[in-house]
Amino acid sequence: MTRKLVFITGNKNKLVEVQAILAKFDIEVEARALDIPEIQGTTLEVSADKCRRAAELVGGPCITEDTALAFHALGGLPGPYIKDFMKTIGHSGLNAMLTGFPTKGATAICTFAYSAGPGETPQLFVGETEGEIVPVRGPTHFGWDAVFQAAGTGQTFAEMDPVFKNTISHRFKALTKLVDFLKTLPE
Ligand SMILES: O=c1[nH]c(=O)c2ncn([C@@H]3O[C@H](COP(=O)(O)OP(=O)(O)OP(=O)(O)O)[C@@H](O)[C@H]3O)c2[nH]1
Ligand SMILES: [Mg+2]
């Protein structure tokens, strides 16, 4: 039986990937573009709080997602604050931040959160993909895709066939954990 999930996100690119990945697991995604305030904290704290607020707003079960980009040389920063860094300094700024550091290594971290409804503690599912920060290569329409070269591929996420990205990405890995969890719930 097809399962339906309500996904609260303001990010159309995320939605496209989530729908494509979950379709393979026979899960239909209904999107709600609500702007949920995001707290400061670790990526797990940010994700859990976002989902708690989303469940209150929609009044029922829902999922949210938070993406972080952790630079190894900077102890994990920008982490969950990558969106603000992208907005303020862009692709070239992300590269410039690592000038003089011995490693350009970075981890893309995706944290999905599922809440059964208002007042229910969100369950978290984390997926990570290793890579490095490189000068822009490929289309630039999705966040930092064009400056993140996934380890062992020789390609930035932006250069990849989207179907391939969806088999190795942080998002895919987190979603497979969410799917396993959903199987334990009644239909
Ligand atoms: O190149 C990318 N490849 C990806 O796979 C990816 N996933 C997210 N992002 C970007 O990283 C920030 C996360 O912030 P974020 O998790 O708060 O998202 P958001 O505010 O856009 O949407 P949402 O919080 O409403 O779901 C935002 O700038 C996103 O555009 C990505 N960039
Ligand atoms: Mg956000």
From TrEMBL:
Annotated Pfam families: Ham1p_like (PF01725)
Residues annotated as binding ITP: 9-14, 50, 66-67, 142-145, 165, 170-171
Main location: cytoplasm
GO CC terms in record: cytoplasm; nucleus
Xref: SUPFAM superfamilies: ITPase-like
UniProt-recorded name of the protein: Inosine triphosphate pyrophosphatase
Top-rank EC class of the record's enzyme: hydrolase
InterPro entries found in the cross-reference section: ITPase, ITPase-like_fam, RdgB/HAM1
Function according to Swiss-Prot or TrEMBL: Pyrophosphatase that hydrolyzes the non-canonical purine nucleotides inosine triphosphate (ITP), deoxyinosine triphosphate (dITP) as well as 2'-deoxy-N-6-hydroxylaminopurine triphosphate (dHAPTP) and xanthosine 5'-triphosphate (XTP) to their respective monophosphate derivatives. The enzyme does not distinguish between the deoxy- and ribose forms. Probably excludes non-canonical purines from RNA and DNA precursor pools, thus preventing their incorporation into RNA and DNA and avoiding chromosomal lesions.
Binding-site positions, Mg(2+): E38, D66
Protein EC: 3.6.1.66
GO biological process: deoxyribonucleoside triphosphate catabolic process; nucleotide metabolic process
GO molecular function: dITP diphosphatase activity; ITP diphosphatase activity; metal ion binding; nucleotide binding; XTP diphosphatase activity
Assembly notes: Homodimer.
Cofactor: Mg(2+); Mn(2+)
Reactions performed catalytically: ITP + H2O = IMP + diphosphate + H(+); dITP + H2O = dIMP + diphosphate + H(+); XTP + H2O = XMP + diphosphate + H(+); N(6)-hydroxy-dATP + H2O = N(6)-hydroxy-dAMP + diphosphate + H(+)
Highest taxon listed in the record's lineage: Eukaryota
Localization terms from the record: Cytoplasm; Nucleus
Keyword Nucleus: yes
Cofactor binding description: Binds 1 divalent metal cation per subunit; can use either Mg(2+) or Mn(2+).
KW Cell membrane (keyword) present: no
